[in-house]
Write a structure and sequence with these properties.
InterPro entries: DUF1254, UCP010244_IM. This protein has 186 residues and is α+β, with helices and mostly antiparallel strands. It has 5 helices and 9 strands; from the N terminus they run H-H-E-E-E-E-E-H-E-H-E-E-H-E. Strand 4 and strand 5 form a beta hairpin.
Amino acid sequence: MRPQLSMRWMLPVATGLVIGVAAHLVSVLIMPYQAPADAWARIATLGPTNKVLLVPQAVADNELIPLLDPAFAVAVCRYDLSRGSLKVRAPVTADYTSISFYTRHGLAFYGINDRAAGRNVIDVDLMTPQQKELLPADEEITAADRLIVESPTTTGIAVIRALVREPGARPAVEALLARATCEPAN
């Protein structure tokens, strides 16, 4: 009789576990779309779209972007490609500089650093796949001359990070980041 008693409870317990796991997964996956103070909204307080803005250094209990590494100076550009493609440019520092691209809801889709760019400026043409299709086929422009990044969405965030080797170098690194641009590619 004991095996029947345990089998009677197996179906309700298994059903409860499946429903619980499904509810947990749905809530975790939908949270970035429902959060009122997501990265996009917090960065909007710094300034307009399609403009590079320095992120102030974090102070206790008042971080614009949580969990930023204090060894890096950070600038951001909230971009909107609905009116056309953008040219994102960032001068490189002596130590390390990178640009990462995220969708409006935080999905990372591309990143490049100064070592991969191999130049004194990281220069990226950011556009949607539809905008890329409209580009003329120019045989004189090679992949080495022009780095094209396709954004899966029309809005998103470009994050520029530069290593600050020592605290006294922060003003110089931030001045270099302030020269970064995120402008229409005309």
